[in-house]
Amino acid sequence: MAKLRIGKLVVIGVGLIGGSFALALKRAKAVKHVVGVGRTRKNLNIALKHGVIDEASQDAARAMRDADLVLIGTPVGQMPAVMATIAPYLSPKTIVTDAGSTKQDVIACARKHLGAHFANFVPAHPMAGTEMSGAAAAFPELYRGRKLILVPQRETSARAIRLVRAAWVACGAEVVLLKPREHDEILAAVSHLPHIVAYALMGMLARRSNVRHMLEFSAGGLRDTVRIAGSSPEMWRDICLANREALLKFMDAYDSELNRARVALRAGDGAALKAIFTHARNARERWLVAPERKPKRQ
Amino acid sequence: MAKLRIGKLVVIGVGLIGGSFALALKRAKAVKHVVGVGRTRKNLNIALKHGVIDEASQDAARAMRDADLVLIGTPVGQMPAVMATIAPYLSPKTIVTDAGSTKQDVIACARKHLGAHFANFVPAHPMAGTEMSGAAAAFPELYRGRKLILVPQRETSARAIRLVRAAWVACGAEVVLLKPREHDEILAAVSHLPHIVAYALMGMLARRSNVRHMLEFSAGGLRDTVRIAGSSPEMWRDICLANREALLKFMDAYDSELNRARVALRAGDGAALKAIFTHARNARERWLVAPERKPKRQ
């Protein structure tokens, strides 16, 4: 494969995701010039200062001119407005992609707003993130060794897929393909629900009048369990709304599992409790402990 | 304060907690000889091999002879049997303490089984742990900078409190006092419930037929949220049963918070969802972000 060389990259929404994409491509020397587009001048200035972008713009028309690749890195709730704004200024050579956490709604939105340009839009989603937001949180290694899900549609041009795939490979990601519905269902289970769980646990504690005193006695367990409750509320509101059906389904399944524990606890049924905990622990071990590190256990 | 020098320390249950206590005291040169007592010869051999203990014993009578300090480091469910076993062999000089995760039940158990020796029993609980179990998981830094809760009773002798306090200080812990009920209530909220939450999330995923495929797409968020689902099922069964009332209360409160999110999500109420997430995120920031690191936020 020829070395990837993107002349002009535009990142709309220069946060952790979009900023890290820019930094990773810069480090790989796969991009010449990065333009950042954002709502607040303050964040764009941080991005400029940290070398995440080379130029800041609040003018979409000017930013789109001669762009080779546009990454929409905003929360999914902003995508309709972003796509409607940029659509008139897209040239046929410009490839557009996104990093939205849901795909069915983003694809529907692109279909509606990008019109003929839809063939040049490659829906994508990197399996990476931290609980931090904003340009200052971006770092070039974010995607190294992480999965990047591409969700191309029937109409998506081969050239567009090639470019977006090459860009993510240059970031160090492993590219895999999923269908939109499959993507949203899986993400509801392994990402969206865990965020709800973390927000709810932290939120419940926060409603107690003695919360400060209680938290003095917490250890690493609570801290890790609620780490992602530090994530952007705006972004997660959008994701939850965009993936409502799948998320509600998994919330119900989670509720059933909690209820198993509650019923066993109420009944003082130690054997049932131990079985519930063991089942979960074994699944975690099968997932996280590599086969070669598992002596005599299956 | 004179330098602490424990002649003979007996650790009953040489796991992460008891083993780390022994290693920390050894490193501080605060103990001369450590005897490990346990159910399985295999774990005791590991403890010997790793230098956690100097002598292994499966004979409680012999182990108790001339002991200065006995730490009961077993899951709380084993404490009645352990206390009943050792009680006849305790000499007046021997101080007994524990590291059990619940205190009301442990105190009741000690009152019942230790008889006249109850005045030499100092209920305690270190706010530290990892998801690992067994002697091989022990390390001397586990308690450094962590809180150690002492729960002395009216009868507890000042000499006993002094020794146990000094031992934990030598391990690097910060010693604080709580009443038994307060301890159990706080721990239900900041430790026991988070374990239930982590087990339930992992357990729910494990019940899906496509769990392996789904987990391929998880990122650090899920991994951290379920880290403590790797904890010992036996230990957590005992803790949950021992602290059933308080835990059920906090499970209900957690359920209400989850339900707030569910109601907002079902209604497509973005403002309510964002408020729920923001409330949780702000509480986490107030807790984890030191005031000096918070620019212009309160």
Largest β-sheet summary of chain A: 6 strands, parallel
Distance between the termini of chain A: 41 Å
Radius of gyration of chain A, rounded?
21 Å
CATH superfamily of the largest domain in chain A: NAD(P)-binding Rossmann-like Domain
Using the coordinates above, name the CATH class of the largest domain in chain A.
Alpha Beta
* Secondary structure tally, helices of chain A: 12
Structure overview:
The structure is a homodimer of 298-residue chains. Chain A has 298 residues and is an alpha/beta fold. Chain A folds into two domains: 6-178, NAD(P)-binding Rossmann-like Domain (Rossmann fold); 182-266, 6-phosphogluconate dehydrogenase C-terminal like domain (6-phosphogluconate dehydrogenase C-terminal fold, Orthogonal Bundle), CATH 1.10.3660.10. The first copy, chain A, has twelve helices and nine strands. Chain A has helices at 16-27, 41-49, 60-64, 79-86, 104-114, 158-170, 180-206, 211-215, 220-225, 233-242, 244-266, 270-288; strands spanning 6-12, 31-37, 55-57, 69-72, 95-98, 121-122, 124-126, 147-150, 174-177. In chain A, strands 3-2-1-4-5-6 form a six-stranded parallel sheet. Chain A has a three-stranded mixed sheet with strand order 7-8-9, with helices on one face. In chain A, helix 2 links the parallel strand 2 (31-37) and strand 3. In chain A, helix 4 (79-86) packs parallel to helix 5, helix 7 packs across helix 11 and helix 11 crosses helix 12. The radius of gyration of chain A is 21 Å and the shape is elongated. In chain A, 53% of the residues are buried. The model of chain A is unreliable at 291-298 (pLDDT under 50). Chains A and B meet through helix 7, helix 8, helix 9, helix 10 and helix 11 of A and helix 7, helix 8, helix 9, helix 10 and helix 11 of B.
